């Protein structure tokens, strides 16, 4: 159960993101006027074949007044899926593609979860493709979608439709400028997890103008 919970949280971290003004974005549900604008903005930041870089993940535990930090690398391929490697403080590797979900820990033990084994993860795989293509209508089947335009890019909020999912993920918020810049996910216990994506490297049609480093 813990393995599946960790995968669900981590995959949403890989796919979706947030910014500092989380409360504000939830005041702006997407509507008929803003939906085409958001779709266009998503298509722009996802205009690549392969993206890779580094990440820094910070989990804040208010009850303990502590922060837990981990770092690693990521690669997102529209054709081959996602590879997420945590390097410090403890190594782990997560891979997701149409064939399923694979995880390997620091001891070398591995776990495999096939789409047929859990419909939640099968739906999640479809949502990945929806996000890549900027198809908000497909995201709306699983999430309440919120959107706020910024001077550079946008912030998008996601709240799961299903109560069972909200027990694990309370909300997701996305901040993007030229790339998806930051990730904050608030879990069912109201604990935030923030990821900063760094040193983007873009491969594909937009390589000449999309390679950047997130400050």
In short:
By secondary structure, this protein is of the alpha+beta class.
Protein described:
The chain has one domain (2-210): outer membrane lipoprotein receptor (LolB), chain A (Clam), CATH 2.50.20. The longest helix is centred in the middle third of the chain and has 15 residues, at 119-133. Mean pLDDT is 76; it is low at 1-5, 15-22 and 206-215. With 215 residues, it is of the alpha+beta class. It has helices at 2-15, 22-25, 35-45, 119-133, 136-139, 163-166, 207-210; strands spanning 50-61, 66-77, 81-88, 92-97, 100-105, 110-113, 143-149, 154-160, 169-176, 180-187, 192-203. Strand 10 and strand 11 (192-203) form a beta hairpin. It is built from seven helices and eleven strands. 29% of the residues are buried.
Anisotropy-based shape: globular
Please indicate the count of domains: 1
- The first-to-last residue Cα distance is 37 Å
* H-E order: HHHEEEEEEHHEEHEEEH
Helix content: 25-40%
**What is the CATH superfamily label?**
Lipoprotein localisation LolA/LolB/LppX
Write down the oligomeric state: single chain
Helix/strand structural class:
alpha+beta
Describe the main β-sheet briefly: 11 strands, antiparallel
CATH-defined fold name: outer membrane lipoprotein receptor (LolB), chain A
Share in β-strands: 35-45%
Strand order of the largest sheet: 6-5-4-3-2-1-11-10-9-8-7
Radius of gyration over all CA atoms, rounded? 16 Å
Return the average pLDDT rounded to an integer: 76
- How many runs of DSSP E, i.e. beta strands? 11
């Amino acid at each position: 159960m813990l393995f599946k919970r960790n995968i669900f949280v981590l995959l949403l971290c890989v796919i979706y993101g947030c910014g500092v003004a989380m409360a504000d974005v939830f005041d702006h549900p997407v509507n008929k006027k803003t939906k085409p604008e958001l779709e266009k903005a998503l298509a722009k930041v996802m205009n690549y074949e392969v993206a890779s870089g580094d990440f820094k993940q910070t989990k804040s535990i208010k009850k303990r007044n502590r922060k837990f930090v981990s770092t690693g690398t990521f690669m997102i391929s529209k054709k081959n899926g996602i590879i997420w490697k945590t390097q410090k403080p403890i190594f782990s590797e997560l891979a997701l593609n149409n064939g399923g979900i694979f995880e390997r820990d620091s001891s070398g033990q591995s776990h495999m979860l096939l789409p047929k084994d859990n419909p939640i993860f099968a739906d999640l795989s479809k949502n990945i493709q929806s996000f890549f293509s900027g198809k908000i209508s497909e995201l709306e089947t699983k999430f309440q979608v919120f959107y706020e335009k910024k001077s550079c890019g946008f912030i998008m909020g996601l709240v799961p439709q299903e109560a069972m999912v909200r027990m694990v993920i309370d909300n997701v918020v996305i901040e993007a400028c030229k790339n998806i810049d930051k990730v904050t996910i608030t879990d069912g216990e109201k604990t935030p997890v923030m990821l900063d994506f760094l040193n983007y490297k873009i491969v594909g049609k937009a390589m000449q103008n999309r390679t950047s480093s997130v400050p």
